[in-house]
Design goal:
By secondary structure, this protein is an alpha+beta fold. The protein contains 29 helices and 26 strands. The longest helix is centred in the N-terminal third of the chain and has 37 residues.
């Protein structure tokens, strides 16, 4: 069934300080446990919590305090919604975080290299020792190749006293920990104070233990030696672990910022200045100062500043930001224009209508933002694992140390002492574990997919809608406005046999009479007429028959066969054409000029040129296609034939469409999508597993509100794009989750040393930290592929 928001007020609270899935999971549990809260969605990427609550049982201020009680920052924005510039501010903060992480990573890497060189000179550290003391094989391999180079360039370094080298290593590592890596320790402490644990806890415990061990070995080496333990130091390992994790964070932050690039681009489209016309003079005014009713001038090639309706001039407008269609749309007096779209070669003036938060652009940005803040059901498993992940990893690290210590102590083999080996394995377990990959697996895919959808003219209301759309097996299409254009148009003009009137002139004369009528068929004939119309005299509207009048001295009668018969005009010469057109469910309008049959005009709601190909593409995706309509069976069958649809149900009222959706869902046992554009489609859209509505500019807001996906352009081809994108997104989510789980399930045991008994392999803590950084980056990079991936 389509998305239904829980009853109650909804607020979005910015949350600061979250760094991994365990963080967002803890905030979500705290909010969900509050009395009166019916729904809470915490988005790690956007740093926000969207909460639906009963104001009679909970206060917004209490919810903010609930977030703060978990150790994270939170502020309640005005009116419970982010400020208009909140997204831009969030993007700016992301860029700042990326630059800061990159600077810290660069400094930590530089100091880590210096520490490595000092360790080579020290010559007694476990990381720099010979093969018998190689607890960290990666560092040993690196140093074995760099030591000859260093000794040839700076031989004096190897003469520096051991105590000086140790002091320098200690000082360098303190700088790395206290400046570059300080956030790991402060956040871990905050989590500890609030009885929690997260990724920072693992990093802080792992590197902190290595550092304290090294300090103890530096200060009291004789104590270690007296107890049979080599006084080895791990300063360079600490430096490199922090440096590599920071480097991964910087790359991840940069990639994550790109996941919201589409939304940022949308929000930045509105020009800052509008040219307001006052007393015939144009004045530049900030868009924020424009008021409803102001007249705005737009020149060729400019972006339209706000929504409005043309009052003078004409042009073509590129509405691709709204619809995804690159073809410009003709605009003339009375037509609506949308802010942030691009004017073509003409100039015009228009009157401002919807402004600020009520504008189409603001509504699109708000919908996409809200969609990116939602959670897909597939994320539930990752959330459950994240909630217990860090405590479990801490227990595994302790167990690793104990097992290694007991086993090695019982089998006194050559090499490092049992304590040193056990310690290195435990540190590797702590730094390789990565809850971030699980936390990023689904949200990054949702953010990229909803942003890509917005660029394609699709508004998808969140991860749940994406997941359901990916599972759809039957697509139900409304006829009018979805398969068809939704507006009557002239489809055929047939001149009478042996008639003296050409079809162009025949239509012009008929349109000149129909111009005075308000009937939809009359309007279609007027739109079809190419030549300028002539004023009509002695106009008569004949209810149920048609109209008469005199145009340029010619007596014109336009109407049905009954009108012709009442005027003594024989229509039998056109019987063959009339039968053929009637079979195609087209409305017939006869035209008589000066008392003689001149021709026949056929009017219908034409099938969109793209509908048949789009239906074929839906079938190629393995989907069943059904058409529902309230129209008569003859018209329905004619449209279905033209669109290539076999299953048709006609004559349905709104409740009949709902019943048919339920019947199809019951018989198929699979998800059903309903596509419609009118108020009468809203109940069926709400009942379907996925409701897809034609949105602003083509459909109604009622249908759009009842739907999960809103198409900013009409036509079935947009449905193909929406379902194809949803399927691709679900594939990406599964890949991300599979990688995140596999990485931790495989990586943690390897770090613990399960391969050592059989293959003699131990994972370096430094390599473990690099693998941890890579796991998160790989998930984000995989999600970013949705920005450019080809859709079926």
């Amino acid at each position: 069934m389509s998305t239904a928001r829980p009853n109650g007020d909804t607020i979005t609270i910015p949350v600061t300080g979250m760094t991994c899935a365990a963080c967002s999971s803890r905030v979500q549990r705290a909010l969900a446990s509050r009395p009166g809260v019916s729904d809470a969605a915490v988005n790690l990427l956007m740093g926000s919590a969207t909460i639906t609550y009963d104001p009679a049982r909970a206060r917004a201020d209490d919810l903010v305090e609930a977030v703060r009680a978990t150790g994270y920052g939170a502020e309640l924005p005005p009116h419970g919604k982010p400020e208009p510039g909140a997204h831009a501010a969030h993007v700016h903060a992301q860029h700042q975080d990326t630059r800061q992480a990159a600077r810290r990573a660069a400094v930590a890497l530089g100091l880590g290299l210096v520490a490595m060189v000092l360790s080579m000179a020290l010559g007694t550290g476990a990381m720099a020792a010979g093969p018998a003391h190689a607890v960290d094989p990666f560092m040993r391999w690196s140093m074995a190749r760099l030591t000859p180079l260093v000794s040839s360039v700076a031989p004096w370094l190897f003469a520096v006293p051991r105590v000086v080298l140790l002091a320098a290593l200690l000082a360098l590592t303190l700088v790395v920990m206290a400046w570059a890596g300080r956030d790991f320790y402060t956040r871990a402490w905050i989590a500890f104070r609030h009885r929690g644990a997260d990724m920072n806890t693992l990093i802080a415990v792992g590197t902190g233990a290595a550092f304290l061990y090294s300090v103890a070995a530096t200060v009291a080496p004789r104590f270690f030696a007296a107890h049979g333990v080599s006084p080895d130091v791990y300063y360079e390992a600490v430096d490199f672990i922090i440096a590599l994790i920071l480097l991964g964070n910087a790359i991840e932050a940069r990639a994550t910022a790109r996941t919201a690039a589409a939304l940022h681009a949308l929000a930045a489209m509105q020009p800052p200045v509008a040219r307001v016309v006052i007393d015939g003079i144009e004045h530049d005014r900030s868009v924020g100062d424009v008021r409803s009713g102001d007249v705005i001038a737009v020149r060729p090639g400019e972006r339209i500043p706000v929504d409005g309706r043309l009052i003078a001039g004409e042009s073509t407008v590129n509405e691709s930001m709204l619809t995804g269609e690159s073809m410009p749309v003709a605009k003339r007096e009375g037509d609506a224009v949308i802010g942030a779209t691009i004017n073509g070669t003409g100039a015009f003036r228009y009157r401002a209508t919807s402004l600020g938060a009520d504008s189409v652009l603001a509504r699109i940005v708000r919908l996409v933002h809200d969609a990116q803040a939602t959670r897909a059901p597939i994320q539930a498993l990752a959330d459950r694992v994240s909630a217990i992940f860090v405590p479990v990893v801490l227990q595994i690290a302790i167990a690793t140390f104990v097992v290694w210590f007991v086993v090695l102590d019982a089998h006194a083999t050559a090499g490092p002492t049992a304590a040193v080996r056990a310690f290195a394995a435990a540190v590797a377990v702590l730094v390789i574990a990565c809850p971030c990959a699980m936390g990023l697996a689904v949200p990054t895919a949702v953010m990229v997919a909803t942003g890509r959808a917005a660029q394609l003219g699709l508004l998808i209301k969140g991860g749940a809608a994406l997941q359901r759309a990916g599972a759809v097996r039957t697509v139900v299409l409304d006829k009018t406005g979805t398969i068809t254009a939704g507006t009557p148009a002239v489809t055929d003009v047939v001149a009478a046999p042996n008639g003296r009137w050409e079809t162009t002139e025949l239509v012009r004369l008929a349109a000149s009479v129909e111009h005075a009528s308000e009937h939809p068929v009359a309007a279609a004939i007027v739109r079809h007429a190419a030549a300028p119309l002539t004023d009509v005299q002695d106009f008569q509207s004949l209810t149920g028959l048609g109209a008469r009048g005199i145009v340029a001295g010619i007596r014109v009668a336009v109407g049905n066969a009954a009108l012709m018969g009442s005027s003594g005009i024989d229509v039998s010469p056109l019987d063959a054409a009339a039968a053929r057109l009637t079979e195609d469910a087209k409305s017939l309008v006869y035209v008589a000029l000066d008392g003689a049959l001149a021709g026949l005009i056929a009017v219908a709601d034409p099938v969109r040129p793209t509908s048949r190909a789009a239906v074929a593409r839906l079938r190629a995706l393995g989907l069943d296609v059904v058409m529902l309509t309230g129209d008569n069976a003859r018209t329905a069958q004619a449209v279905a034939r033209a669109a290539g649809i076999d299953r048709v149900r006609a004559g349905l009222l709104p409740d009949g469409k709902v019943a048919e959706i339920e019947r199809i869902a019951h018989e198929s046992g699979a998800a059903v999508a309903m596509v419609g554009d009118g108020v009468n489609d809203a109940p069926a859209l709400a009942r379907a597993d996925v409701g897809i509505a034609l949105g602003w500019g083509t459909g109604t807001d009622v249908a759009a509100e009842a739907s999960d996906i809103t198409l900013m352009r009409g036509g079935v081809e947009a449905v193909v794009t929406a379902i194809s994108l949803s399927r691709r997104t679900m594939t990406t989510m599964r890949q991300n989750l599979g990688w995140a789980f596999a990485y931790n399930v495989i990586g943690i045991p390897i770090a613990a040393g399960v391969l050592y008994p059989a293959f003699g392999l131990m994972l370096s803590p430094v390599l473990a930290s690099a693998a941890m950084a890579f796991s998160s980056v790989s998930v984000v990079a995989n999600s970013l592929r949705l920005r450019t991936i080809a859709l079926d």
